[in-house]
């Protein structure tokens, strides 16, 4: 990292550590607080430098749209490690996700076990997989038949992809999550489809999207 200032090195390491711990990137205010920086404009200046040097990629149109391109020695080693993840079925209308209450019972209920590179999963131990039915998230490169990796959760950040149970409709769906007052907007990533707008009490978040895998024959 010879091209970076000490402050930029600090920010880069903070981003790496934050993603490893949380499995989603930090916000500008997270970085400001975590690195003890005087203002968000100083954070933005240094983030632009990191982007110019090819260490990160930012999509300002997406909440927490930050991608870490830099790999330190630890993450490079992780790319050669494989974890076995239980595939529990498919995400589709008709039933909530049956998330077992322990990792051992996940394996017992799994349709199959799939190998996944550890660098996709961070430090999480409780990841499971589902097969996607439908094309509502096609613009996010999640197609019918793809396998998605999920972390059980009861809450989510605005704009995150989540698996939710819609109580009134008795349906499970994967959408981007946008709380809006007393309502929730569940936004598909497909220009031909309208969002689902429903009351907050109708939505039960079950898991947060971690990543997706395209089957070899897909």
Structural commentary:
- This protein has 218 residues and is an alpha+beta fold.
- The chain folds into two domains: 65 residues, Arc Repressor Mutant, subunit A (Orthogonal Bundle); 133 residues, Umud Fragment, subunit A.
- The strands form two sheets. A nine-stranded mixed beta sheet has the order 4-3-5-6-11-7-8-9-10, with helices on one face. It has a two-stranded antiparallel ribbon with strand order 1-2.
- The protein starts with 5 loop residues before the first helix and ends in a 5-residue tail after the last strand.
- About 2% of the residues have low confidence.
Q: Main traits of this protein?
A:
Umud Fragment, subunit A, 2 domains, 218 residues, 11 strands, Arc Repressor Mutant, subunit A, alpha+beta
Q: Give the strand content.
A: 25-35%
Question: Which structural class best describes the helix and strand composition?
Answer: alpha+beta
Low-confidence stretches: 102-106
- Radius of gyration from CA coordinates: 19 Å
CATH-scheme architecture of the largest domain: Ribbon
| Residue share in helix | 10-25%
**Tell me, what is the CATH class of the largest domain?**
Mainly Beta
Task: Give the distance, in angstroms, between the N- and C-terminal Cα atoms.
Answer: 38 Å
Supply the number of helical segments: 5
Strand order of the largest sheet: 4-3-5-6-11-7-8-9-10
